[in-house]
Amino acid sequence: MTRFAGLSAAAARRSDGALPSRRAFLKTGAAVGGGLLLHAVLPGLARAASAESEAQGAAMLNAFVSIARDGSVTIVAKNPEIGQGVKTMLPMLIAEELDVDWQDVRTAQADLDTEKYGRQVAGGSMATPLNWEPLRRVGAAGRQMLVAAAAQSWDVPADECSTAQGVVHHAKSGRKLGYGALVEKAAALPAPDLASVRLKDPRDFKIIGQPLPGVDDPLVVAGKPLFGIDVAVPGMLYAVFQKCPVFGGKVASANTDAIKSLPGVRAAFVVEGGDNPQGLVGGVAIVADSWWAASSARDKLQVTWNEGPTRTQSSAGFASAAAALAKSAPQHALRRDGDPGAGFARAAQVIEASYTYPFLAHIDLEPQNCTAHVHDGKVEIWAPTQNPAPGALLVAATLGISESDVIVHMTRVGGGFGRRLRNDFMVEAAFIAKTVGAPVKLLWSREDDVQHDFYRPAGFHFLKGGVDADGKLVALSDHFVTFGHGERVADAAGMDASEFPAGLVANLDYGLSLMPLGVPTGPLRAPGANGIAFVFQSFLDELAHAAGQDPVDFHLAVLGEKGDPGRDFDTSRLRGVIELVAEKSGWANRHKLPKGTGMGIAAYFCHLGYFAEVVQATVAPSGAVKVDKVWVAGDVGSQIINPSNAENQVQGAALDGIGAALGQAITIDKGRVVEANFDTVKPLRMRQAPPVEVHFRITDHRPTGLGEPALPPVIPALCNALFAATGKRVRSLPINNAELKWS
Amino acid sequence: MAFTIEVNGVERTVDVDGEMPLLWVLRDVLDLKGSKYGCGAGLCGACTVHLDGEPTRSCLTPISRVGTAKVTTIEGIGETLLGRRVQNAWLDVDVMQCGYCQAGQIMSAAALLAKTPRPSDRNIDSAMTGNVCRCCTYPRIRAAIKKAAGLSTADARMP
Ligand code: FES
Ligand code: FES
Q1: C-alpha distances in Å from residue A320, one per residue of A313, A325, A405, A489, A495
Q2: All domains of chain A, ordered by start, with CATH?
Q3: Residues in chain A with pLDDT < 50?
Q4: Which of A113, A546, A652, A739 has the most CB within a 10 Å radius?
Q5: What's the gap between Cα B1 and its chain centre?
């Protein structure tokens, strides 16, 4: 639960987004087996972990770089790789400024060790903004030391030396030395002040800006074991864990004795569990010689559950409760600008609409799993996690051991999308392994994965907008009915008081009402924005049509001529991507499209990135939807670090949004999830995936992340296209084809 | 019960329940972890292998039904020229995000190209629609298949 009013979400985003101080220093040492080891230390980044760094008010950063005598470079990738490309991208930053040949760089995945590496989280699209400058400084400092070592050897001034591809050159004398030959000398030099090292002119970049393939690609295509599910430990047993289908329920009784006698079964036992859905919850564990045996035994499991209070909750119940709440004023004011009542009274037209979006599951393709081995008073864990540190804490608390006795190896992750910011699977695996006294791989079935998620919360928005006689948006209100208790909003269920277009409309009123919820919720790719952008960007389109305006013109008019300094984003950058995507998509010619085909546009700012997207879609008279094409324009600053991965991420985000809009909803009934597998919660398929054309607007701003901000606009752009094609407005997700029939 | 199957050209004997799906025999008995579990219900294609060249969902194939069919997995597909070409196309195009689905995608793509060396977009749609990519790398999977077929990788479905 976050603190009330969504304000906390904004605050968290800001603190998360705070860029680290440039003051930093570097430690050096001899690498194992000889060579130079660079170990950068930055103050103000992540928490101060070691006694030493605490004493210095510092926390250690990110990365190890080691250069061996043969000149090969190993760069540790500190963050979990969930498919967002950080295992390639973060080392690229260091390698660029170190001035080595990318071919000579090896990357290695770090274990969890925040004392060494600082923040190790895959989330919030923060890897780029947090590391763009610090990691380049690490590389540049290394280069400076190697140059100094060469200059000393030759007895020439350092500024007469240059570097290229891992070699220091002295042009005047024609001498050169490879980094490998210099590392011993360099390691003995004092480390330069990271703040003072000189960074390359971006025009001289040789690695940054290149479309480099992912470092693990060759292993992936060869089917090598990389993922959590692939982990094997000698003597390992396999586990399934049956939780109560109703959230928060506990086991009353179970036929564990009968289960124990089934083939291959080694143990079956009831887990009492606690009330924190992120920790160990009630259920029955079955441990067997193979996962198949454990899973087959589960088919015979009979459990009587104490289902608990959530059993009365349902999606249908939430919808009617929300409609009832909307009849009264919001329970909590979120923001009030000007005089909304007077604004609506003066408006030439007032439009009212209610929008809703459903609960969503993450459906990572690799189901949740974890391998744990309790030995020598420690627990060793192999986990596909986005966020290992809190998992280690929970494991320590659950097992009653010290956090320092939890060793976490991070595996490659078969999809995160926010699900693996929670580590419930880690706690379960550790508890089961400890109970049976053997290494255990816990693997959830797909059904477990769909039915025990931290769902993107559903939401209900009751909107009112007023435009004046000139078609200008003069008043806007949203009564957002969401989930929470008292003053606390459920995880990822809040709304920022600054939610667009707040600050740009003279009379504005945002309010919140809360419904109690027993279903666990959490962040899903572009949390908050992934639902809220659909609502506001669709409603803006409604207002544009009501005002008789081109939606692009209407949007630009709302943004105003100049970036508003009072806002946390730069309206001119949003304007820039809207104009770019309109140009690239041929927006002005959309009237020539045949009947049943339409274009829609939407734009959004989140996770420090600006994206505008146009979708062209065709609706058959039967209502069947075909997405023809998506055009994306993004502004994430001055540099696209890896254009290959950047395009892949943006295409993936746009298609992810389309998949959710077309086929995904989690339905709660009697306190449990109705859907169970990919036949009912439908991932996007090849034949549904349109071409996605990606354009970046390069602007003079610090580079920021890409995994999330490209997603939110695509859903309203699609729904606006469906309106253009059929005249039918989609106000509820997922899209219901039956409501789009036309003749 | 003992079963002898041919996997990637090698005869392997396993002593397991006849109902055990080939996927779990491959992964947990034979230690071939390239084939992936995604749904266990024939809905995602992550577990795709070839039985005598036919793309097959190993999660739904009991070991007792494999018989004498030659099993090819992602670990063995690179032994054929076509398989190697598909893997190389995947590398050239840099298809992967998380990579979890890609073994199944490559197996389905190799089976498609074996029968249809110059596939149309429609051929690609129907051969690949059973393979889910949660990261939605579909544009690149499409491009990589065309690349392996020696076709232009441009997406020609819309100008
Ligand atoms: S695991 Fe076999 S089709 Fe999904
Ligand atoms: S690359 Fe992640 S599921 Fe396909």
Answers
A1: 12, 9, 49, 19, 21
A2: 14-216 (3.30.365.10), 229-308+368-443 (3.30.365.10), 329-359+456-740 (3.30.365.10)
A3: 1-25, 31-34, 41-63, 565
A4: A652
A5: 27
Do β-strands A378-383 and A406-410 pair in parallel, antiparallel, or remain unpaired?
Answer: parallel
Per-residue pLDDT at A38: 62
Asked if A107 contacts A68 with a C-beta cutoff of 8 angstroms, the reply is no
A83/B98 Cβ within 8 A: yes
8 A C-beta contact, residue A123 and residue A12:
no
Q: What is the pLDDT of residue A5?
A: 30
8 Å CB contact between A442 and A428: yes
Residues of B in contact with A687 (CB under 8 A): 125-126, 129
Distances (CA, A) of B145 to A584, B34, B123: 27, 20, 11
Residue A231, classed as helix, strand or coil, is coil
| One-letter amino acid for residue B67 of the chain | G
Q: Alpha-carbon distance A291 to A298, whole Å? A: 11
A358, A666 in Cβ contact below 8 A?
A: yes
B interface mutation test: which of A87, A92, A215, A292 has the most B CBs within 10 A?
A: A292
**3-state SS assignment for residue A353:** strand
B39 lines ligand 1 (CB under 6 A): yes
Q: Tell me how many helices (H) and strands (E) chain B has.
A: 6, 5
What local confidence, expressed as pLDDT, does residue A566 receive? Answer: 52
Token pair in block for residue B54: 């036919």
Please report the pLDDT score of residue A8 as a whole number: 29
Cα separation, A237 vs B129, whole angstroms: 35
pLDDT at residue A611 in the model: 98
Distance CA A553, CA A205 (A): 38
d(CA B58, CA A403): 40
Q: What is the Å distance from ligand 2's center to A216 Cα?
A: 13
DSSP-derived 3-state class of residue B1: coil
Q: Residue B135 has what pLDDT?
A: 98
Q: Which chain A residue has the Cα nearest residue B95?
A: A648
How crowded is the C-beta side of B91, counted as CA atoms within 13 Å? 15
Q: Please report, rounded to a whole number, the percentage of residues in chain B having pLDDT higher than 90.
A: 96
For the entire predicted model, the pTM comes to 0.93
- Residue B58 has a pLDDT of 98
Structure tokens at A95: 């390698």
Starting from the CA of residue B100, give the closest ligand.
2
Write the CB contacts of A385 (distance below 8 Å, at least 6 apart in sequence): A80, A370, A391, A408, A410, A413, A420, A423, A426
Separation of alpha carbons B156 and B159, rounded Å: 6
